Here is the input.
Amino acid sequence: MGFLTKASREQDAGDTESNIEDQYLNIYGKIARDFISRDDLKLIVGRIMSIIDPGGLLPIDLDNDSGARAKGLLYKKLRDAGEDISRRFPDVVDMRE
Here is the structure.
């Protein structure tokens, strides 16, 4: 079971509106540890590429996010169609379970 699913199950199902903010902050703190900012990643990859390819013979567009956007649009399209995308894509967690 993923940590997000576990964290959401640990919360009382009868949470009031005022406790939802606390629940979000509790889960968000766990999420933040597992991600790196896009700017930090670009900086790291840029530094690595300057060592691997100092002459810039193999340029990489670190600003290109077309793959991520395409996947996000696919997720949205399937979700809007009513499909449970968490069954189709293992990187999506259904927090309603």
Remarks:
- The chain has a mean pLDDT of 78.
- DSSP finds five helices and no strands in the chain.
- The first helix runs from residue 3 to 10.
- The helical segments are 3-10, 17-32, 38-52, 66-80, 85-88.
